C-alpha cells in the first residue's frame, strides 16, 4: 500500500477541517500517559539527558565541514555540547538541486503521504522534542510539549493539506473543443504544478519547530527541496524533525537530502550566504523585522516572513473585570512574554471602564494587574512553570532597562526561583502606566515580559492607536473587551483593516496567545508583522506555478 | 432582484469552467450580425468616427486638471484629438480612499453581480471598442474585435469568478468547541476577507483592454477601488470599460469613483507619482521589463506584472512540414509581431529535421518560411488584415535596424499598402538565419515582426537554449514540433521548469499566439516575463487577506 493510500483518511480529514474551521486536532495536545504511553515522558527525558555532550547522529548528511553546535540551556545556563554534522553552503545547495529532480516528480498525493508518515513518526518522539525544546528555548514543560509537538505537527499537517488541495485543484488534463462554425478545433491540454526550487527555512530561537514546520512542510509538499537553517540556539528540536523526514524518504527510495539541516554557530553564521544564493528560490523566516526586511528585499525570491509586531489590548468595558485582568496577566506572564502573540500595549480609558458594578477606574485596573501578576508569579505551583525561562540574555537586559522608561513603574522585575532548575535564567514581568501621547515609547516591540497600561481619552483613541501601531509596526494579535455590540463591530472592522485578528472578551481557559491550527490564521499578511499566514492558500500556492501544454487531437 | 441573483447563472458557469478548463466562452468571439445585431458594426464604426475630435463625456469624473488626450491612429497617422477629464494624482487617490469604505462592505456576490452586469453592458459596445482599439493599437479589425471585446470580457469574467470563489472559500463564521477533558471551551469565530486598498492598473499600448481588465476586475471583485492609468496612446477602448462600470455603480447607489480613469500624456506622465504613493497598495502592469522591474522593486506593494519575454519555437520533426511553416509564418506576421505571445527564436537542427519524406534541411525550411511569409503578406485578401498596423514608430525603426544584425538576412522588411488606409504605418516581417552561438543577438525581445531561424547542433541544444532564455529573459509561449513521444516529454518537462507553456504541433486553425480564457494560464509566474497569471488563484488572493475574530460563547 502506498503511503498516500495509508494516510488518505488523515489527509481527507485535514482538508475538510481546513474548510470547516471548527475544532480539529490530529495530534492530542495533552502529554497524557494514556495517550502517549506510560514510559513516554521518562524515555523522552532520558533521551535528552543522554544526548547532552553527544553528536546528533541521526541525520543522513555528510560532515565535510565538521560537527558544530552552540546550544545553551536557559534552565541550566550551561552549554549542551550537542553537535551536528555540517557541509558548506554550496554543498547544501548542490545536494538540494540533485534531490529536486526526483522529488518534483513524486505525485502530490504520494508526497503528502510521505510527509504525513513523518508526522506519525514524530508523534512517537513528542517527549524527546519537548525536552529538547525546554532546554533550548526556555519554554515550560507543558508549552514545550504542546507547541513543539502536537501543535506544530498539526500546523505541518495543515500545510500539507492546503498544499495537496491546491496541487490537485485543476485537472491534470482536459480535452478542449472549440466550435468554429463549420468545423471545430480539438486540443488535448495538460497542466502541471511546477515547484519553484530550493527553499530555505530559517528558524527562530523561541519556537524552533512550531515556526519552522509550516514552511518546511509547505515547501516539501509542493515539490521543493528544503534546507532548514535553524537558529544556532535552538537546533535539537528541529533536528529530530529533519531526521525523521530523512528516514521516511530513504525508506521509500527517495533522496534523503530532499531536506537538510544546515546548522551554524553565532561566530560563523551562514544565513546570508544561503539566502542570497541564486539557487535559493523560496525563503521562510521567523525573527527580527530588520533581518526579515532584508530578506524581503532580495530580488528573485518568494519570501514568507513572521517578523516582530506590537500587540494591543483594547479595554472598553467588561462584565467580569477580575477574570479579564487574570486572563491578561496570564498572557503577559506566559513564557515570560516571549511569544509573538503576547500582548504588550493595554489601552484603557482615563475615565475608567464600565462594569456591572459601575465604573472601575484606570488606577483600580492597574492595581488589579499588579495583584494578579504577582499572584501568578508567586504561586509556587504555577509561577515557575508559566514563566518558563528566558531564551536570550538580551531579553533580561531589556526587561531591566524597561523599568527606566518614561511612565510610572507599576511592577518591577523580580528574581524568583525555579525549584527544579536553581540556575535558570528568569525574570518576572515589568508593568508600566503611561499616557497615550508617549506613543514613541510603546510603538515598538519590547520583546519579553514588558507591558504598558496606556491611558487614553477613550475607546476611540484606544482603537485608533491599536490600529495605527498594527498598520505601521505590525501586530499578530489583539485582545479586546467590550460589552457593547456596536463597539465590538467597530473594533473588529478597524483592526481587520490593520490586518489584526481580535480575541473578544477572553476570560477563562483561553488566551489571546493561542492560535489554533485548522481554524485561526496565524499572521494575516495585512500588516508589517509578516506575510507567512498559517495556513492560508497564498502560503502554499506561491511555492509552485501552473504550466500547461496543448496539442491538437488528430485522427 | 439583486445583481448577484440576476447573474448567478453566469457566475456559476464561469466558476465551473475555471475548474474544468474545457472550452468556455461567455461572449461569442465572432463579430456576427446574427449574434450582435445587423447594425452593430455600422453603429460602432460611426460612433468611433463621431468621437474623433470630441470630449469623451461618459466618465463620472471631475475635470479639475483639464481635458487631455494624445492618441494617434496607426491607420491614419493622425491625432484622434479625443480628450478625457483629469484631476491631480492626489485627487484620484483621495477619491479612491473614499470609495473604498463603501465598496469593501459590499458582499462578494453582490460585487460579482455588479461587475458581471458591467460586462453585459460592454457586450453592447464591442464594436465601438473594436474600432477604438483598431485606431489606437493598429490591430486588424478581427483581432481588435475579438481581443478587446469578447476575449477581454471572458478574461474579466474569469477574474471575477476566481475572486468570488476565493472570497467565499472559508466560512464567514463557525462555532469552535475544544474538548478540555472535564469541560470544553466554545468560541464563536468569524472571518472576513479584507481588501488591501487602492489598486493602480497600468495599461499598455497594444492590448488596452485585454491586458487591463483582468487586473481591474480582479482588484474590484476583491473589494479594492481601482485607478486605471492607461497608456497615453491607447485610452479610448478602456475608457468605455471604465465608463460602463461607473454607470452600473451609480445606478446601484454606489460610488462611481470606485473605479477611475487617470489619463496622462507623454509629456506629463503620472504613473510613477501614482505608483510610489503610499496609498496605492496594489499595482497591475503590462509593458517593458525595465519599468516592470522598477515597479516590482517598490516596497509595501503587491505587484502583478506582464513584462517582455523571448518566445521560442523548437523544431525537432514533423509529419507536415508545410503546414508547420505556414502556421508559424502566420504567428510571426499576425499584428506585425506585436503580441506578447508571438514567436521570435526558431531553433532548427543544423542537420535538418525528420519528416515522412525524409530529412528536410535547414535551408529548405528557411526557404519555406520566406515563401510562406511572402505568400501571406502579398495576399491582398489576407496580408493587410493579418498585419494590421504598427502602434509605435519605434517598432518600425527596430524592424529596419534588425536587418543589419549579425546573421544572414533571409527576408527584409517591405512596404506594402493597406487598401483601406493608404497612410497606415506598416512593415512586413524580417527573418534572419543565425548560428546558435550568437546568443547575444537573439537573447532579448526584439518587439515587432522580427524572427530568427537559429541553427543548433540538435534538438537538445534547441531545448537548452529555449529553456535558458526563458529562465533568464522570460517567455510567455513556446511552440514545439516533434513526432517523437520521448522528445515531447523532454521538451514539456524542461520548458515547464522554465515557466513556459508549450504548444505542440500546431498546424491548422490554431496558433501559439492564442491563449484561451478559462483554460490557458496566460503568463505562468515561473520566469522573468512576469507574475500576472490570468487567472490563477494567486492573481486574486494576494489582493486581500483573511482576518478572524474569536469570542467565547456564553450562557
Short recap of the structure:
The structure is a homodimer of 555-residue chains. The first copy, chain A, is an alpha/beta fold. Chain A is built from 19 helices and 21 strands.
Quaternary state, please? homodimer
Q: Looking at CATH, which topology of the largest domain in chain A would you report?
A: Aldehyde Dehydrogenase, Chain A, domain 1
Coarse morphology of chain A: globular
Average pLDDT over all residues of chain A: 97
Give the class of chain A from helix and strand content and strand pairing.
Answer: alpha/beta
Largest interface, Cβ cutoff 8 Å = A-B, 67 and 67 residues
Number of H/I helices of chain A: 19
**Rg of chain A computed from alpha carbons, rounded to a whole number of angstroms:** 25 Å
- State the major sheet of chain A: 7 strands, mixed
N/C terminus separation of chain A: 39 Å
CATH architectural label of the largest domain in chain A:
3-Layer(aba) Sandwich
Which segments of chain A are poorly predicted (pLDDT under 50) over 5 or more consecutive residues? none
CATH homologous superfamily of the largest domain in chain A - what is it? Aldehyde Dehydrogenase, Chain A, domain 1
Tally of discrete structural domains of chain A: 2
Spatial strand sequence of the major β-sheet of chain A: 16-17-18-13-12-19-20
Give the class-level CATH name of the largest domain in chain A. Answer: Alpha Beta
Number of separate strands of chain A: 21
What percent of the residues of chain A sit in helical stretches (DSSP H or I)?
Answer: 40-55%
Query: Proportion of β residues of chain A?
Result: 15-25%
Amino acid at each position: 500500500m502506498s503511503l498516500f493510500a495509508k494516510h488518505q483518511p488523515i489527509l481527507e480529514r485535514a482538508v475538510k477541517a481546513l474548510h470547516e474551521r471548527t475544532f480539529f486536532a490530529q495530534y492530542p495536545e495533552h502529554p497524557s500517559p494514556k495517550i502517549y504511553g506510560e514510559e513516554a515522558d521518562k524515555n523522552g527525558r532520558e533521551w535528552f539527558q543522554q544526548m547532552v555532550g553527544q553528536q546528533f547522529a541521526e541525520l543522513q548528511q555528510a560532515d565535510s565541514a565538521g560537527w558544530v553546535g552552540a546550544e545553551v540551556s536557559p534552565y541550566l545556563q550551561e552549554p549542551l555540547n550537542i553537535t551536528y554534522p555540517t557541509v558548506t553552503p554550496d554543498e547544501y545547495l548542490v545536494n538540494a538541486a540533485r534531490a529536486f529532480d526526483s522529488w518534483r516528480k513524486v505525485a502530490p498525493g504520494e508526497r503528502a503521504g510521505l510527509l504525513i508518515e513523518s508526522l506519525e513518526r514524530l508523534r512517537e518522539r513528542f517527549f524527546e522534542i519537548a525536552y529538547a525544546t525546554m532546554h533550548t528555548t526556555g519554554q515550560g514543560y507543558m508549552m514545550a510539549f504542546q507547541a513543539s509537538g502536537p501543535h506544530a505537527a498539526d500546523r505541518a499537517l495543515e500545510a500539507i493539506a492546503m498544499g495537496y488541495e491546491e496541487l490537485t485543484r485543476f485537472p491534470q488534463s482536459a480535452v478542449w473543443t472549440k466550435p468554429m462554425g463549420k468545423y471545430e478545433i480539438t486540443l488535448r491540454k495538460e497542466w502541471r504544478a511546477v515547484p519553484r526550487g530550493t527553499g530555505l527555512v530559517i528558524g527562530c530561537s523561541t519556537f524552533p519547530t512550531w515556526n519552522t514546520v509550516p514552511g518546511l512542510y509547505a515547501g516539501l509538499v509542493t515539490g521543493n527541496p528544503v534546507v532548514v537553517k535553524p537558529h544556532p540556539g535552538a537546533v535539537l528540536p528541529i533536528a529530530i524533525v529533519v531526521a525523521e523526514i530523512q528516514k521516511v524518504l530513504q525508506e521509500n527510495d527517495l533522496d534523503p537530502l530532499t531536506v537538510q539541516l544546515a546548522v551554524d554557530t553565532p561566530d560563523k553564521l551562514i544565513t546570508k550566504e544561503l539566502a542570497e544564493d541564486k539557487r535559493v528560490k523560496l525563503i521562510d523566516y521567523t525573527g527580527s523585522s530588520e533581518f526579515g526586511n532584508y530578506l524581503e528585499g532580495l530580488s528573485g525570491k518568494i519570501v514568507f516572513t513572521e517578523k516582530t509586531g506590537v500587540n494591543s489590548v483594547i479595554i472598553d468595558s467588561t462584565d467580569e473585570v477580575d477574570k479579564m485582568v487574570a486572563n491578561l496577566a496570564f498572557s503577559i506572564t506566559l513564557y515570560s512574554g516571549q511569544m509573538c502573540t503576547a500582548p504588550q500595549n493595554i489601552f484603557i480609558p482615563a475615565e475608567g471602564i464600565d462594569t456591572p458594578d459601575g465604573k472601575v477606574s484606570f488606577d483600580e485596573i492597574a492595581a488589579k494587574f499588579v495583584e494578579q501578576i504577582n499572584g501568578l508569579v508567586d504561586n509556587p505551583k504555577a509561577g515557575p512553570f508559566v514563566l518558563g525561562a528566558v531564551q536570550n540574555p538580551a531579553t533580561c537586559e531589556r526587561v531591566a532597562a524597561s523599568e527606566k522608561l518614561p511612565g510610572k513603574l507599576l511592577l518591577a522585575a523580580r528574581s524568583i526561583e525555579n525549584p527544579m532548575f536553581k540556575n535558570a535564567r528568569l525574570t518576572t514581568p515589568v508593568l508600566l502606566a503611561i499616557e497615550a501621547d508617549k506613543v514613541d515609547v510603546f510603538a515598538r516591540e519590547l520583546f519579553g515580559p514588558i507591558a504598558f497600561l496606556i491611558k487614553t481619552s477613550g475607546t476611540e483613541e484606544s482603537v485608533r492607536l491599536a490600529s495605527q501601531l498594527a498598520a505601521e509596526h505590525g501586530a499578530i494579535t489583539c485582545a479586546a473587551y467590550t460589552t457593547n455590540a456596536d463597539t465590538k463591530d467597530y473594533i473588529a472592522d478597524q483592526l481587520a483593516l490593520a490586518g489584526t485578528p481580535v480575541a473578544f472578551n477572553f476570560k477563562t481557559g483561553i488566551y489571546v496567545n493561542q492560535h489554533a491550527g485548522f481554524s485561526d490564521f496565524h499572521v494575516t499578511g495585512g500588516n508589517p508583522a509578516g506575510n507567512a499566514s498559517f495556513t492560508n492558500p497564498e502560503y502554499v500556492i506561491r511555492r509552485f506555478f501552473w504550466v500547461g501544454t496543448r496539442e491538437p487531437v488528430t485522427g
